[in-house]
Amino acid sequence: MSITPALKAAARSAYRDVWRASSVTFRGDDAVLQAFRQKMRLDAVNAAQEAKAPESYEQYTKLFREIGVVLRKNIVQGVKVGESEGKDLYRVNIRKETELGDNDTVKSPPPVDTSSRSARKREKLGAVPPHSDTTQPPRPLNYSALKRAHKERKLPELREEDLEESFVRGSGPGGQSINKTENNVQLLHKPTGLRVSCQETRSLSLNRARARKLMLEKLDKIANPGMSKEQMKAAKQRERERRRRKKAKKKAQLKTMEDGEDSD
C-alpha cells in the first residue's frame, strides 16, 4: 500500500511543528538552533526513505509530534549573559508552556530588588534580544491537491468503549425544558482526553448524536491536520479570494493596455 497524500500532509505538519518549537526553545542560541535543525532535517530524510508502509510512516509522524511537545514543555534553554563577582550569569528561558515541578521557588520566584546599581546591571545583562527566524516554512499544498487529499484522507474511528458520557442540566434560554432537564451531553474521549459538550436542542437523543459528530470532527482535525471540513471551508474561501484578486489584477492590466493604446 502506497503512502497517501493525507499521510504526507500530516508528516509535513509534524515537521513544521518541530521546526516552530525549536525556534521558541533555542531562541537566542543560534549555534544550538542550527545544529538541532540540521539533525532534524537528516532524521526527516532518513525517515522518508525508510518508511515504506503507511504504518511506519504514521509512527514517524507521531514521533515528530512527540518531539515537538517535549521541546515546548520539557526543554529549557540557558544562555550565558555575563559574569558577576567571578561567577557566570545565565538567563533561563522559561515559557508559559514549560512544565514546572513542585518547587515553589521556581513557580513563584521572589521579587528582584532593582533599586541597587548591581541589580539594574544584572537586569540589563539578562535582556537577550529576540531571535529573528528568517527561514521560510515549506510551501503549503494548493487547493486542488488539498481537495484530493481531503477526499482520500482516512477518517478516525469513534468507538463507544472509548467514550465517557455524562448528562448535566442545561443552562441559558429555553425555559424549564432546558434548565430543569439533563439534556446537556458531556463526552470525554479517553484515549486523547478530548472533551465536547452539546446542548443545541431540547432533545437528548439529538444532542447525543450531535456530540458524537463534534467529537469526530475534533479527532479528524488531529488525525488529518489541515484537511478537516472546517479547514477545507476556510481553504475554499481563500481560494475564492485568490481567484478574485487574480481576475481583478488581470482586468486592471487589460484596462491599462487599452488606455495606453488610446493615448497613442
UniProtKB/TrEMBL annotation:
Entry GO MF terms: translation release factor activity
Biased composition (Basic and acidic residues): 230-240
Record-linked Gene3D superfamilies: 3.30.160.20
GO biological process: mitochondrial respiratory chain complex III assembly; mitochondrial translation
Sequence ranges assigned to domain Prokaryotic-type class I peptide chain release factors in this UniProt record: 157-252
Localization annotation: Mitochondrion
Ranges of Basic residues composition bias in the record: 241-253
Keyword Mitochondrion attached: yes
This protein's UniProt keywords: Mitochondrion, Transit peptide
Disordered: annotated span: 100-180, 219-264
InterPro entries, per database record: Complex1_LYR_LYRM7 (IPR045298), Mito_Transl_Release_Factor (IPR052405), Pep_chain_release_fac_I (IPR000352), Pep_chain_release_fac_I_sf (IPR045853)
A GO-annotated cellular component: mitochondrion
Family listed: Belongs to the prokaryotic/mitochondrial release factor family.
Protein name, per record: Prokaryotic-type class I peptide chain release factors domain-containing protein
Species whose genome carries this gene: Candolleomyces aberdarensis
